[in-house]
Design brief:
mainly beta; two-stranded antiparallel sheet; globular
Length: 141
């Protein structure tokens, strides 16, 4: 499955976007502040601009798997091989303080928040697991 996150609203608090699965809208996303990082940037550059727990991952295309999170104790999508980042998941949450660099999911959005996140997380995990034999990718634009 091909997942695409389109970042739409950026401010000093958070980044809100839309998540598409194989080209179809699925839900809204909320991330930490977009600091203009790209997958092609050097690790040195990324580490210089990144603020731990307050920076959205670099734009780019990454592999995505579903596995059991040791922190949350449930199956969650995990983004692999992000330069300068580790343990980035897609999961429930409502505001940037819930993110710590992860991508939050929700069916409704507010100014600096998203809602109905538990249902969005469960639905995404179920869709990914249904197609678990396929290679999953996530593109952040």
């Amino acid at each position: 499955m091909k997942i695409k996150v389109v970042r739409e609203t950026k401010n000093d608090i958070c980044t809100i976007g839309s998540l598409f699965i194989n080209g179809e809208f699925f839900c809204y996303t909320l991330e930490d502040k977009d600091r203009g990082l790209k997958q092609t940037d050097s690790l040195f550059f990324i580490q210089g601009k990144k603020i731990f727990g307050k920076t959205a991952i670099p734009l780019g295309t990454y592999k995505l798997i579903v596995n059991k999170s040791t922190k949350f104790k449930r199956m969650l999508p995990r983004i692999l091989d992000i330069k300068g980042f580790d343990g980035v998941l897609l999961h429930r949450g409502n505001v940037a303080d819930h993110s710590l660099g992860c991508i939050l999911l929700g069916y409704k959005k507010g100014e600096n928040s998203i809602y109905e996140s538990t249902k969005a997380e469960i639905d995404l995990v179920n869709r990914l697991l249904l197609h678990n034999q396929e290679l999953h990718t996530i593109e952040i634009v």
